[in-house]
Amino acid sequence: MISQHMQNSNKQAAETIPDLYERHAKVWDTSRGKTLFERSWLDRFTALISQGGSILDIGCGSGEPISRYFIESGHAVTGIDSSPSLIDMCRTRFPNSDWHVADMRRLSLCRSFDGLIAWDSFFHLPFEDQRRMFPLFRTHSKPGAALMFTSGPAHGEAMGVFVGEPLYHGSLSPDEYRALLTEHDFTVVAHKAEDPACGNHTVWLAQYQ
Methyltransferase domain: which residues (predicted)? Predict the structure, then answer.
């Protein structure tokens, strides 16, 4: 059983994520590899989106390399991130795209998109916040929209380290993700737990009906 002290510690670590990335934005941008080890999954994602279709990158970071890949593939990209410094980098690098400083938990763009991606971002949210994201995914999805996100392989919490500080990760169970997707009218297209061809990422790809 997880102690109350550990639960409180994990919750506190989760709440500091936006501040952590803001304070270390340049370090994150430098340390984030620019090679697309995710490309096979990005290709599967864009295969569900019409040429030039709109993509919402949720937790876009500095726009490198994933948003760049979409932009260079001809898609209209809108990106959100909680870090003003990272969004400034996006605006400098890709001035013709649409960038917003925003907390994904309060996402309200009054628009819908052909594709939504939350790669290595959604999994920083605690369990309840993750559950609350699925109505927001649906609200921002056009009919037939693709949705892709990464998670952990099983229900639980894990603590990483970034610049010597705790970095929270949370995951629901695969069964709960499937249930939430179904409840909000998404069909699972592909799922792979700890994909060895993608840096052991656990990936979900779904489509809004």
Answer: 55-144
